Amino acid sequence: MTSRPLGSPPASRSAEPAGRPTIPRSWPVPVVLILLSAIPLTTGALRLVQLAGGPAIIPANERFTGFPLPLVLHIVGAATYALLGILQFVPRIRRRHSAWHRRSGRVLVVAGLLVAGSALWLTLAFQRQPGSGDLLYVLRLIFGAALAACLVLGFVAIRRRDLVAHRAWMIRAYAIAVAAGTQAFTEGITEAVFGTGELTGDLAKAAGWLINLGVAEYAIRRRPRATVPR
Ligand code: HEM
């Protein structure tokens, strides 16, 4: 059933059999998502420290030092989106604190659009990342635009009270954004097996996005329509 207004309490709470948990275990998905985002979020924090004049724990990136605003917006938006987004996937929070889910969802749409917009800005306005090629350039434009499109479609869907479409678009948006984490693994594995190279690096990044979208489509289809979380 998808017609219960968002924010109203679950209708069948009192009908749950006593002592039998009906909400799925909450921790596995958030734990995986935290681990996934840990590498890019750490890099982002270290980059912010370095841009703020602190110690350069990671090598300085000269391309951004003159005008770091888009990078700062990207990192702050990405950290907000990745960390706050994790809570949207916790069934217990989604079901029992739907007002929180709605409020943080609005913040997430803004943060996600910031990630997408700044990613496009970084791609279009700065010298290309050394060691990367045309393929990554095009992929960043495609996935930056796709991230924005998924967020808008997910937002429009929930305004229409279409929970199934809302869930699907928001899962896709999150999968595209946190591919930054998956790419840390695909790049590491690709480098270890095939060595470094422009095309190899670009393909490794592409693999990160494809893996995440594959997992997203699986998650979207796994749950029958009738039991979409409320
Ligand atoms: C939550 C997800 C994301 C996180 C945590 C993240 C994190 C980061 C970080 C930390 C940097 C700075 C790297 C450095 O200082 O050397 C960066 C750069 C960048 N990111 Fe993201 N990012 C995310 C999503 C995305 C997405 C979805 C795209 C594209 C569709 C993207 C495109 C870029 C681009 C183009 C750069 C500049 C790379 C360069 O030219 O050196 N990011 N990201």
3D structure, described in words:
It is a single chain. This protein is an all-alpha fold and 230 residues long. It has one domain. The chain has nine helices and no strands. It has helices at residues 28-51, 62-65, 69-88, 91-96, 98-125, 134-159, 163-177, 179-194, 198-222. Helix 1 runs antiparallel to helix 3, helix 3 (69-88) packs antiparallel against helix 5 (98-125) and helix 5 runs antiparallel to helix 6. The termini are close together. The relative contact order is 0.12. Bound molecules: protoporphyrin IX containing FE (HEM). Protoporphyrin IX containing FE binds at residues 37, 40-41, 43-44, 47, 61, 74-75, 78, 81-82, 115, 119, 122-123, 126, 129, 140, 143-144, 147, 176-178, 180.
Distance from N terminus to C terminus (CA atoms, Å) equals 8 Å
**Number of domains as seen in the coordinates:** 1
Total beta strand runs: 0
Low-confidence stretches: 1-17, 225-230
Radius of gyration: 19 Å
Overall 3D shape: globular
Mean pLDDT: 88
Helix/sheet category: mainly alpha
Helix content: over 70%
Q: Ions, cofactors, ligands: which are bound?
A: protoporphyrin IX containing FE
Query: What is the count of helical runs?
Result: 9
Which strand-content bin applies to the residues? under 5%
* SSE string: HHHHHHHHH
Biggest beta sheet summary: none
Summarize the structure.
The protein has 230 residues and is mostly helical. It contains nine helices and no strands.
Layout: helices, strands, pairs:
Blueprint: H1 28-51, H2 62-65, H3 69-88, H4 91-96, H5 98-125, H6 134-159, H7 163-177, H8 179-194, H9 198-222
The structure holds protoporphyrin IX containing FE.
